[in-house]
Structures are given as C-alpha cells and as structure tokens.
Design a protein that fits this description.
homodimer, alpha/beta, Rossmann fold, Dihydrodipicolinate Reductase, domain 2, Alpha-Beta Plaits, 3 domains, about 35% helix, elongated, HDH (chains A, B), EC 1.1.1.3 (chains A, B), amino-acid biosynthesis (chains A, B), methionine biosynthesis (chains A, B)
Chain lengths: ~425, ~425
C-alpha cells in the first residue's frame, strides 16, 4: 500500500483545478493521512494552452478523456467534465472497462445512469465514488453510506441548490423581481450554462435521486421525482411568506411510505426560525432522519472550487486507503425498483392567484375550495390593477389531491387571471 | 469477506443494549450494507441476571471483560463500560494484545491514554474506532478523518455536552437558579455519576482533546486544555446575556496558532441568532473549518441509546467492510507533541461582579480596568442588597491577559464582594 495512487483528471474547470491545487499543496499531509503518495499522472481538458495559473507540464496530457481513462499509469479516473451523457459517460465506462476506479462530481450522470454504471463497476470489481456530486463540501454521501449505516433511514431532506437559494434570498434582501435577480445571478456566473438545470430544480432533483437510492436501497429514480422549479415564485410570494413568518426554499424531501417512495423537489414555505429557514445564499443543508439516530443536520458550502475539490479528495483518499464498497451503499443487484408515490400526507398550503376584477370572483374561489373540502385559514386581498386582483390564501391542512381538485374546478370559471401558485408549507 | 464479523460487547447499559437491539433488528439490512453478517458472540456486564428486556441466552457470557476480550470467537471487542482507567482500559489492552480490533465510546480513556493505546493498536496491526466517543450520533470523527481528509483543518469548535446545554437552556426557560436546575437534571438522570464530569466541562474537554488530535496531527493532550465549567453561571448572567442578544454556551474551541495548539473549553456568550446560539437542550453541534471546504456545521443528538448505538454501529460496519486505518487519522508515531497556547486573540468580554456598597467602588473598578488597557463598552449596575451591588460590564475587544491583570488588581482593593465572573464573547 505504499505504491502511489495515480490519478487521471478529466476536466480542468473550477473543480478540477481545485483538486490539482490540493494535491500540489498538501501532498505531505495527504500521504501522512492515507499512508501512500497521491499523484497525478495525466490530465485532459478542452484546451491545453489556456492559462490556468498552474503549469501542467509535469503531467501527461490527453486530448481525449477516453484515452486518459485507459492510460496504464492511471489507477483512478477523476471525472470532472459534467453532463449527463457525452464524453463524461463514455469516458467513465471506458475507465471501468479498463479496470480503473472512478471518482466523479457528476450528479446528472449518476441520477440518470447510476444503476447501469453501478452494475458495470461492481461486475468489474471497481468503485465509483461521488461525494462531490451532492451538496458540495458537505460529506453527505459518507454520512449516509457509512456514518449512519446502523440506521433504517426514514427521511432525507435538503436545500441542495445554492443558486436557487441565492436567488430566493437575494429577491427578499433586494426587494427585486425574480427576473431581475435571475439576470444578476447569471451575470455573476452563478448559474449553469443551461440555467433551467438550476431554477427548474433539475440539478437539486439529481442530488435528491442519488440520496434516495442510498437511503432506501432503491434504484436511482430521477423520473419518479415530483419536480417543480422556482421560476414562478414572485417577490409578492416572498413578501407574503415573510409576513407570515416563513421563507421560501427549494426543498427536496424523500421518504419511504407504505405506498412507495415519495420524492419531491419543490419550493416550500418553511418557518423562518427553523434551520432550513435560516439558510442564506449558497449554503446547502441536508437533514437525515434515522430510526436509531433521530435527526442529523449537515450544513456547509454547496459549491465552489474549494468545497467541491474537498469532496473529490475525500473520495480519492478513501480509495488510496484501499476502502472499497458498492456504489449506492448496497450491491447494485440488491437495489429494488421503487414505486413512485406522491405525498398524501395533508399539509397546509399557500396559494396566490390573480382574480379578474368582477363581482363575485372571490366568493367563487372560496366556494370551490370549500366544495373540495379545503378550508381557509387566512385570506388576504391586495390593492389591484384595473384588470386583476391578487389574492393570498393559506389553507388549513389539506391533501394535495383536494387542492388540485379545487384548482381544476377554478380553471373553467373564468375568474382566474393567470395560473395560480400553490406552495406547500413544511412545518419542520 | 463473507465470514461473519463476531463481536464481544462489554457493558450492557443504555448504549450496549442499543447496539444489541440494532444488531438483532437490522441484521438483514446490515448484511446488505457491509456484505457479511454481523453477529454477537458473547457479552459481559456487571450483572447477568438483571432484566434488560432482551434475552441474552443466545450469547456467550463472561463475568470478566478481559476474558471476553480474549475469546477466540470474538473479532471485535466493543468496549461500552466507560471510565478512564480500570476495567475498560485493562480489557481494551487485552483485546489489542489478543489481536482484536476495538470499538469504544470511551472519551475519557482516549483523551487520557489515547496515544499509548494508538501506539499499541498500530504496532499490533489493529484498529481502535470511537465515533460514539464524541458528539453522540453525529458522525464527526468520520467527517474529520475521512470526509475532510483533503483539508488542512484550521479550527474545530463545538457544543458537545448535552447535559450542560440542557442546564443552561432550562435555567433561561424556567427562570431558575443553577442549583435548582442542576438538582432537576440530576433527578432526571441527565448527569454522569460524578456530575463534575459534566458541569466541570471535563467530559466536553475529553471530546475536544480527541478532535484536536485528529484535526492538527498532534498527540491527544487533555491537560493542555484551558478548562472552565458552568458551575459559576448564574441566572443573572443568563438574563443579562439574553438582554444583549446572547446565549451562554459551554463552547470548545481548538485551533493551531503560531505559538502552539490552543484548546479551550469554557462558557462563552454567542449571538442568539447564530447556529450555536440556537442550540437548545441536549443537542450537540460541531463546527469544522478547513482550508479548502470553508465551514461545515454538524448538528444532532449528543447522547442517548439510539444515537450513541448508531455511532458504535458505524464503526462496526466500517470494520466489517475491512476498512482499516490509524487511530487518530495519521500513524501514532507521526503525531507531534503539541505546545499548549492560550488564546491571545483579543475578544470582547462579559464581566459580572458584586461590589461592596461603599462610595467610590464602581469608580475604582472602572479605573483599574482603564489602567490595564481594558475599555468598557457597556456597564450596568443593578438594584442592590444591603451589602453588595451587582455590576455587569461588557468590554471592547481586549486580551485575556489585560483583563486578568485588571481582575488581579481588583482583588487587593476590598471593593469586590466575591469572585467576579468573566466570560468571553464569541462573535461567530
């Protein structure tokens, strides 16, 4: 075990360069901790000539990440290119086929192809590690797979997309619209190249799908997630929530129920005094509940060079120590196909709708809610423009089915100006 | 690796029975996770006949934990007896000498004898794992040793004694004196048999010493900790702190400085809106700062059957997976002897003192503080009894040395009725 562990790093963006930096600066500390040197044999990226602030001349170079994955002097293929398919997946498969272990930060690839890749890895006796794929620098994969291995996991929750949390926090602080803050975040480089991955909740849902698989021993099931982004959250919603003592967060929840696996990623109202309510900016939080441990809360930076590289290095160090195990915490062949289940647990809901400015519109809404069995806890009508009047409603606890029935009934009546917004209130 | 991992459990109190319960109830899940059965070969406790709610007839029995530690059918000796010396230490040494791995929840033993035991274990090629020794169910050892292995750790902080936090929280909620709530906590069984271990800060300091060693690559140095308990915190202090927007917490801080290793465990004022300030009751929180990751915060239950057994099982599972490593994250032989350093970083301080009811007493105090270079930010004198007047002072940032100089100068003046209380204010 005193042979060096030799890495091939594919992708030299922010995270890749962070990993390079740690290995260069902390080589003695790393060797003291894992008992052998960790070295970089070769790297691969789009451009060889780009000035990255660190000379790459001491490392081998491959234009093609697949060639890097197959190099004889590489023990671990470190995939930091990203993307659900394409080069990342091809090179990962090539690495496994060539008998290499894989460390990746690629949540999209794992959320969609995780089961197939896990089967391939385990058949080849290789490991895939992906601490950096979920919640940045927070060691949440390690906590679930190892730290809480003695627990039946009952629920996993979290705020796991820093960009969405930044947008929602900034909207409130600056009193600006979603569109304005979205543009600001994009300008600052806080959003993915396809911003829909962030604001549509897809990136966070990728992470939730991975956590669910580990927590509940199920095949990763991204398509089974009830998914809603933050694009329709208005500054009015944020202000109304604040008035009532709530914050709006893009919250992921996964739990095993009698009917199947419930996975949802959607904007929710959470009490502003709760740990989730106090989470500002790009910080992530994951809450894990186990039958023995009760509740564990992990908080930390969800993105960025240092935090993500720290998570990649945790995986590299475990492999260097010779610690091996199945990809999702149990053998891929033992994972069961989950039955997706939507939440039927009643919850209070927040509703915002714009009513056409006609007599009886509000009465109609109230009647339809009542007929569906949804009872109103608070209602507030705001000053209105010439054509429509905004109305905010907080319901008593109700099933989502009853609420959807009422909303559907409203559609045909012509009293709504635009689509209503309905957000679950999570009393944590 | 499909051979069962065979445990010998010494100590069948709350934690021991919790471990038994998990292994009985979750055997299939555990085997799926670690790839082999985890079984209990034999147990040892003070009384064989006590009714523990679970029959022990299917396990071997040893009156003597040393005999348990040496049994041929035991691979891992699980030490849950507690105590710095005595049977726990003797049996742990016997287990290592007999070629067994050890899992323990014994913070006192590790804080005092950790280096010797680590040397013995590593010489014998055995591991000692102790997730349950620090912060109950929170996987903080795993986070430090493994999850943040790519980081130079810069600071570790935490509230790690649930009993102290319970007492301080209850004093404020109930508006009762330290003595009253102490008696209440003792009646509820929340305190150690020797309550000084809790309220004197010793238990929390044991935990801090262990974290320091891992974080900074130093030999565990319990005696190097600047230690102060909560016994002198009065309800007046708690109320005055609350008036100013602070909570009082028994806070441990460890950091490497240019002068050496700073380790302190002492009651501090922390902002009530900070994560530490919001920590109520028996919940623990550990904050870890690393040069790559930034800040990670871990929160969870610090004690109790389920949480502590969960931590023990994490260690057992890692050993079952064949994952082995040095006791304190680096080879015991590589750990350096730390130079204890007291904090010289200036901080604001909270002072409470009772002045004799004589003209000029307050002026004398203010003068002596000024002469030592301690400047006063806020001062408040309360209604007083016939003989003494309570005075609360918040200083501007000052060194502890300057403050101690002023306090020393006050002693000879005869203006103080009783010993002053000085608490550091940590702006986190």
């Amino acid at each position: 075990m005193t042979q060096p562990l030799r890495l091939g790093i594919a992708g030299l963006g922010t995270v890749g360069m962070g990993v390079l930096r740690i290995i260069r600066q902390q080589s003695a500390l790393l060797e003291a901790r894992v008992g052998r040197p960790i070295v970089i044999s070769a790297v691969s990226a789009r451009s060889r000539d780009k000035d990255r602030g660190i000379p790459l001349t001491s490392y081998g170079w491959e234009d093609d990440p697949v060639a890097l994955a197959r190099r004889e002097d590489v023990d671990v293929f470190v995939e930091l290119m990203g993307g659900e398919n394409g080069a990342a997946k091809t090179a990962t498969e090539a690495a496994l086929a060539a008998g290499k272990d894989v460390v990746t930060a690629n949540k999209a690839m794992l959320a969609v192809h995780g089961q197939t890749l896990a089967e391939q890895a385990e058949a080849a006796g290789r490991v895939i590690r992906y601490e950096a794929a979920v919640a940045g620098g927070i060691p949440v994969i390690k906590t679930l797979v190892e730290g809480l291995a003695g627990n039946g996991i009952t629920r996993v929750m979290g705020v796991m997309n820093g960009s969405c949390n930044y947008i929602l926090t900034r909207m409130e602080d600056a009193g600006k619209s979603y569109q304005e803050i979205f543009a600001e975040a994009e300008g600052l480089g806080y959003l993915e190249a396809d911003p829909q991955l962030d604001v549509g909740g897809i990136d966070a849902a990728h992470k939730l799908a991975i956590l669910s698989s580990i927590a509940f021993g199920t095949k990763v099931d991204f398509n089974g997630i009830q998914l809603e982004g933050i694009e329709r959250i208005s500054i009015d919603d944020i202000r109304a929530a604040a008035d009532m003592g709530y914050k709006i967060k893009l919250l992921g929840v996964a739990q095993a129920t009698g009917r199947g696996l419930e996975q949802r990623m959607q904007p929710c109202l959470v009490p502003e005094s709760s740990p989730l309510g106090q989470l500002d900016g790009g910080t992530n939080m994951v809450v894990i509940e186990g039958d023995a441990v009760g509740q564990i809360v992990l908080r930390g930076p969800g993105a960025g060079e240092g935090p993500t590289a720290s998570a990649v290095m945790a995986d590299v160090c475990d492999i260097a120590r010779g610690w091996r195990g199945p990809v999702f915490g149990q053998a891929a062949s033992a994972l069961v196909t989950p039955t997706p289940a939507f939440s039927q647990a009643p919850a209070p809901y927040y509703l915002r709708m714009a009513l056409v400015d006609k007599p009886g519109a509000l009465a109609k809404i109230a009647t339809l809610l009542g007929e569906a069995g949804v009872s109103i806890y608070r209602m507030r009508q705001y000053e209105h423009s010439d054509v429509s009047a905004p109305v905010l409603i907080v319901t008593h606890k109700t099933s989502r089915a009853a609420l959807d029935q009422a909303l559907e009934a409203m559609e045909g009546t012509g009293v709504l100006a635009g689509q209503p917004v309905a957000l679950r209130i999570e009393e944590l």
